[in-house]
From TrEMBL:
Residues 173-426 form the EAL domain. SMART domains: EAL, GGDEF. Pfam families: EAL, GGDEF. This is Diguanylate cyclase (GGDEF)-like protein. SUPFAM superfamilies: EAL domain-like, Nucleotide cyclase. GO terms for molecular function: cyclic-guanylate-specific phosphodiesterase activity. It comes from Aerolutibacter ruishenii. Residues 30-163 form the GGDEF domain.
Amino acid sequence: MDDELTGLHNRRSFLALLRRHVLMAVERQTLLAVVVLDIDGFARINASHGYDFGDAALRHVADELRQLIRPQDYAARLGNDRFALILTRLMNKGHAELAVQKLFRRLEQAFSSGGHAVRLHCSAGVAICPSHASHADFLLRQAEKALALAREAGQPWRFPADDGAQAGGLSEWWDLEIEMQGAIERGEMFLRYQPKLAADTLRPIGAEALMRWQHRSRGLVPPDRFIPIAEQTGQIRPITVWALNSALRQAADWPPGAAPLSVAVNVPADMVAREDLPELVENALRLWGRPDTRLILEITERSLIADPARSFRILSQVREQGVKVSIDDFGTGYSCLAYFKDIPADELKIDKSFVAGLLDDPACADIATLIIDLAHRFGLTVVAEGVEDEATLAALRARGCDTVQGHLFAEALPQESFRGWLQQRLPAA
């Protein structure tokens, strides 16, 4: 159900979505944020410039919200000049903070229509599930209370009163967003390679390329900090394209073995359903591909959920180029056997949490066994990541796991170190 004026979800549709996604967030122990947004002095805008201008201003805010949200998020008009967002699958509270900061930056530009121009000033309240509430109605109330607090304090936005965050200023997350721009050009981004080996012979068969950011003043910024920022701000696409081209270019310099080596590059959920993904891959292969290097795209289960039909079609086009698809962290997302038989993939990666518990937790052992058996029944190979000791390796071999990676064999290595590691272990071509 859509709002007639803006085309966004209306209040009834929003509440239904919020209740469903709050239940999912609580059940799966993920974070979700609700943002409630008002246009300050909207009645005065209508009185000064007319209702047609006011309607145009509402449509403008709706368009900005559409541009801001990711495919897995939702925007709604709750009534009059009040809007709301549902931000799903957040990494942490800073992820929501960054989204709000970005929205206010988008609204800084003056809006003009019909010969009139105004600068739209807004106030917002943000509440996090489950930190502030784990029930949809209470969570929305918390966001509305935070909005009232923001207005009382003269701040653009706030978390609820019991949250210690100070809103309205530049956070570390915004600092990193700004500093990330130009990081590739400054040479601060680089790749590390985590070796992948055949489980039975321990012969190297390739590596996973892992992005790293060496900030000029902060030092090494962990991926779990900068990747969510890149996803929220739209910088993940150029970073991923850089990683794709860099990995293939550097893999072309690896020593040749008796069989082709693979290089795996992680592709974020937002890019899996993009129509230009096959073209980006084709361009990188044309520039840097070579016959003795095979490209693997690693995606998460969550990448397939928003629009399975579209994702499947795009990934099928990628596979037609000779590229393999690997489902990363399998077993931790939204596994659905209904679509598994048609999934356009070649490889499943058992999440390291199950590998870590393989020897001591019967449930982890059962899940790992089931994943391996399921994958093999559908003609997929299986990778276990996070292998740390010989006993775990033996347990994986006994279950028929195909490929292993982890600190038992090597940490993530710089390009030159990985080349040396390969030269010591590869049989002559």
